[in-house]
Design brief:
The protein is mostly beta strands. The chain has no helices and 6 strands. It has a single domain, classed as Umud Fragment, subunit A. The mean pLDDT is 86.
Length: 97
């Protein structure tokens, strides 16, 4: 995330309470995610989603979490179907403190 958040920075996130997340930097939790640096189920990435919309409802087909890093070894994380069940956006990036 060092394009937006310099390595080692302290950051302020606001609790996610709903609304569009597309294009925002988010703190997410998903148990299948294994962060390369810390091995945890949490990561900070740019959020992008692909949805199917009908007249009555909508659903996520895929969520893509894009790294915003100068290090090309970080790859986007794509979550679909079963992986979306325990996926949770915890916060939206506000600022580096």
């Amino acid at each position: 995330m060092n394009k937006n958040i310099p390595n080692g920075s302290l950051c302020l996130f606001k609790k996610y309470n709903g609304g569009s997340r597309n294009g925002k930097i988010v703190l997410v939790q998903q148990h299948d995610i294994q962060d390369a640096d810390f091995g945890s189920g949490y990561t900070i990435k740019e959020y992008c989603s692909e949805k199917t919309i009908s007249e009555e409802s909508w659903q996520h087909d895929k969520i893509i979490l894009k790294p915003r890093s100068l290090d090309d070894s970080y790859e986007a994380i794509e979550l679909s179907e079963d992986q979306l069940i325990d996926f949770k956006v915890l916060g939206v990036f506000v600022a580096v403190i």
